[in-house]
Amino acid sequence: MKRILVTGGAGFIGSHLCERLLNEGNEVICLDNFFTGSKQNIRHLLGNPYFELVRHDVTESYYAEIDQIYNLACPASPVHYQYNPIKTIKTSVMGAINMLGLAKRVKATILQASTSEVYGDPQVHPQTEDYWGHVNPIGIRSCYDEGKRCAETLCMDYHNQNKVAIKIIRIFNTYGPRMHPNDGRVVSNFIVQALKNEPITMYGDGSQTRSFQYVDDLVEGMMRMMNSRPDFIGPVNIGNPNEFTILQLAQKVIELTGSQSKIEFKPLPQDDPMQRRPNIAKAMENLNGWQPTIQLEEGLMKTIEYFKGI
């Protein structure tokens, strides 16, 4: 049994990770300030004697004796991270400093949840980990993109200077149950609008592409990365390499929900990337052959069932 700290543990991804870690026989401390996380996501875990919920903001120091840290704390959808951009970048940068400092003190391994957004609007396709990215440092998405890039830098500096055991993953678009219905992400947007038979909002002409990963595949990849050999620190892409246009996604959601929704086109937001697809060769090679097992239609059905229930 390990004592494991999950920051952002009441969020969409964090709650699935906490659940899996408990099921594997670990003790879990879930840290969340509930800006975008929800007690509803982890309510079913509260009766577990090995689960501890702490309301805390990672921009403030936190002290505990732990073996591993999964640092997930940060709003991840444009609606939420653009609501308070200064708070967003503070969460990424100061949160990383505080968690890396904790890892240094107690000699814990820390996994930093970075993002495919570090690649910006990529000029290399598909994206490999050695690509440095094409990011606007002063745009409306910069608080998130540059915050996550800085967090990666901090991880490498703590590792090189203080020998902190680090793991860096770059998460590509992930979806599944417990997504916030109003988080502005494309999968939840489309499903909610389709279930209500409302017009489906399409930004741009729908030709931009994304790769969609089901949350269970991500959690498996995260845990394999955390427990991988010590000299493999990343960064490593964790995503599903199957690529779809946003228009294809909308049509698939309409089909699976049996919706009467029509597609409504609107202008593309600033700095919205045109292509997004991970090269996952490094993950497959170093994480015991990890690769996604749940493809888009199966994952969408599970997610649609969840949204029908709420």
Portion of residues in helices? 25-40%
Rounded to the nearest angstrom, the distance between the terminal CA atoms is 34 Å
Given as residue ranges, the uncertain stretches (5+ residues, pLDDT < 50) are: none
Average predicted confidence as pLDDT:
95
The major sheet is characterized as:
7 strands, parallel
**Alpha-beta content class:** alpha/beta
Question: Count of helical segments?
Answer: 10
* Element string (H = helix, E = strand): EHEHEEHHEHEEHEEEHEEHEHH
* Tertiary shape: globular
Strand order of the largest sheet: 3-2-1-4-5-6-11
Using the CA coordinates, give the radius of gyration.
Answer: 19 Å
Number of strands: 13
Q: Strand content of the residues, in percent?
A: 15-25%
What report would you give on this structure?
The chain is of the alpha/beta class and 310 residues long. Helices cover 38% and strands 17% of the residues. It has helices at residues 12-23, 39-42, 78-81, 85-106, 142-162, 186-195, 215-226, 246-257, 281-286, 296-309, and strands spanning 3-7, 27-32, 51-55, 68-71, 109-115, 166-171, 174-175, 200-203, 209-211, 213-214, 236-238, 243-245, 263-266. The strands form 4 sheets. A 7-stranded parallel β-sheet has the order 3-2-1-4-5-6-11, with helices on both faces. A two-stranded parallel sheet has the order 7-10. The chain has a two-stranded parallel sheet with strand order 8-13. α1 crosses α7 (215-226), α4 (85-106) runs parallel beside α5 (142-162) and α8 (246-257) packs across α10 (296-309). It is globular.
